[in-house]
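Quick one:
INPUT:
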């Protein structure tokens, strides 16, 4: 958006502005997908609209708690994004902007009624580190790095063998599941579900991930990881119902965050698994528009080439 164009309101919504759910997740400090927090902060630094809303909502919450709020313009340690003074707009300016005011009001009501957010649950970082670049699924899980596609043993038996993981990774998965048993938070159920998927207990993993997605229906990462688990079961057991449900969950994730890379990848994989070649090609092309350089994009190009 041009900075000095007088015909454009500094509070005009841009196509890439995050929705209330993502802003709420950022403000509450909830775990976002890999790189998501950095991406949001870059947007806040460049968008007067979202910066103003972010600051005013956080000011409101701090004032309700009786705390002084640091000035983001002068305090480098502030958790607010520092934006050049020339690009700042008056605080509470959103009160006079229709759509912006509606979004701000919705956020304020949610924060006042909900109170403190649940904690993020047990961290997946130890499992991610222990697993390294090993993959146990063709689908894409949030925050896990790219690795070679696994050799999949297809079977209709629930206890069919799954790719073996290291003792370190298995121990990390067990610890996450034990910690998840001490809390009912959505973050804990999500982490437990992902760890169970990694260790091969796919049915229980799907149950955990469904609980997490139901508890926080606006969380695109929870929906995308549920899609990944359904794809994993569908690929191993060749069940069309799982592929259809995986597509539905990936679509839901993309309504929350249209650029969510894992959801874009999983959606394309679901369409491919359902044999919808034209739709799958379009989905892989959409993924490559969002990610043209990573190792995941190279794999997406392989899928795209094989669909022709």
């Amino acid at each position: 958006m041009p900075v000095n164009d007088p015909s454009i309101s500094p509070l005009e919504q841009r196509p890439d502005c995050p929705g209330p759910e993502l802003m709420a997740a950022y403000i509450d400090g909830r775990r976002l997908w890999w790189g998501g927090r950095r991406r949001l902060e870059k947007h806040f630094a460049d968008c007067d609209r979202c910066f103003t809303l972010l600051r005013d909502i956080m000011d409101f919450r701090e004032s309700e708690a009786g705390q002084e709020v640091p000035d983001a313009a002068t305090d480098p340690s502030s958790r607010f994004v520092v934006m050049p003074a020339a690009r700042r707009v008056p605080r509470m300016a959103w009160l006079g902007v229709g759509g912006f005011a509606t979004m701000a009001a919705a956020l304020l009501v949610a924060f006042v009624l909900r109170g403190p957010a649940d904690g993020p649950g047990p961290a997946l970082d130890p499992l991610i580190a222990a697993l390294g670049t090993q993959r146990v699924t063709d689908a894409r899980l949030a925050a896990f790095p790219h690795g070679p596609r696994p050799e999949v043993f297809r079977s209709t038996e629930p206890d069919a063998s799954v790719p073996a993981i290291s003792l370190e990774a298995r121990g990390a998965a067990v610890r996450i599941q034990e910690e998840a048993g001490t809390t009912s938070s959505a973050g804990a159920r999500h982490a437990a579900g992902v760890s169970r998927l990694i260790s091969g207990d796919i049915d229980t993993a799907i149950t955990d991930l469904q609980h997490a997605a139901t508890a926080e229906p606006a969380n695109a990462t929870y929906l995308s990881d549920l899609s990944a688990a359904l794809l994993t079961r569908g690929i191993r057991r060749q069940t069309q119902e799982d592929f259809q449900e995986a597509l539905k969950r990936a679509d839901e994730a993309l309504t929350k965050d249209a650029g969510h890379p894992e959801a874009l990848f999983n959606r394309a994989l679901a369409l491919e698994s359902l044999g919808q070649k034209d739709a799958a090609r379009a989905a892989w092309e959409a993924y490559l528009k969002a990610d043209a350089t990573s190792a995941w994009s190279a794999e997406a190009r392989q899928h795209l080439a094989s669909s022709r």
